[in-house]
Amino acid sequence: MGMSNTSGEYQFRQKHLLGLSEYSREDILFVLEQAKYFREILDRPVPKVPTLRDKTIVNLFYENSTRTRLSFELAQKRMGADVVNFSSGSSSTKKGESLKDTIRNISSMKIDMVVVRHESPGVPHFLTQCVDAAILNAGDGAHEHPTQALLDMFTMQTTYPDLKGKKIAIIGDISHSRVVRSNIIGLKKLGAEVVLCGPKTLMPVFVNDMGVNVSYDLEETLEWCDIAMALRIQLERQGKGTEFFPSLREYHERFGIKRTHLEKYPDFKIMHPGPINRGVEMESEVADSERAVILDQVTNGVAVRMAILYLLSGGTRI
Length: 318
Ligand code: CP
What we know:
Number of helices: 11
Low-confidence stretches: none
Bound molecules: phosphoric acid mono(formamide)ester
CATH superfamily of the largest domain: Aspartate/ornithine carbamoyltransferase
CATH topology of the largest domain: Rossmann fold
Number of strands: 11
Number of domains: 2
Order of helices and strands: EEHEHEHEHEHEHEEHEHHEHH
């Protein structure tokens, strides 16, 4: 399967979306370009197209989700797909069935695409070896969350159509974040400058190899950036709780975005992948301010997921 851009030179040849590390700069720009059509469709009185009416998709969620799961499901239904949802908590996983057996049984029901979220890194890659369906990674442990980064970049492009040279700060729990990894990979491919900011204890060694800068000073970071993306403090992935900093109150004191920052640095936009810990990553007034594009990210997520489903389905009817 190959789909070209208007010049006819580029061909989209991906079969899966496992991570942005497997996607070229051209692939990413092509997905974002397609997403513009779907974003426009979402504003129509009847926001539906029959693009996936001959496709059956399973959403395989082994980890909690609100945004990603609903967004994928809505995208699939907006495109006319037959959709089935799997939650590990109410499945035969509880009786001891393995992931491999689960996916092979589901696949026997003639599934075209699988959207998977799992707490273990590499599960989407593993599934490509078990079934023929297109696999879309909806978040695998602390590894990648490619559709989140795509929707983040799409949202950034609504303010800055060309992200080359744009200054993006990503603030918070870098160590445990799949969102940061996918964003760094994608943003670097699009030529953005990335600074990571957070406590030293939440700054992993892998950042040294990713072409980003690190700051431990929130003030200098907010003064520098065009966009500040705050990341959730992932207490569920931090062992005994706040062992990486003295307390949530102290974390907020040093790294939380506050209303006073909006007044002091009048230009930067605020993003957050959600779910937000209000009063930790940012004050409530910041999350609800006009400078925040957090709910735009959620709306754009449906369009971006429609675009990637369309491209990976090999369909041609928008
Ligand atoms: N941003 C994100 O992945 O949110 P959910 O965990 O609610 O899907």
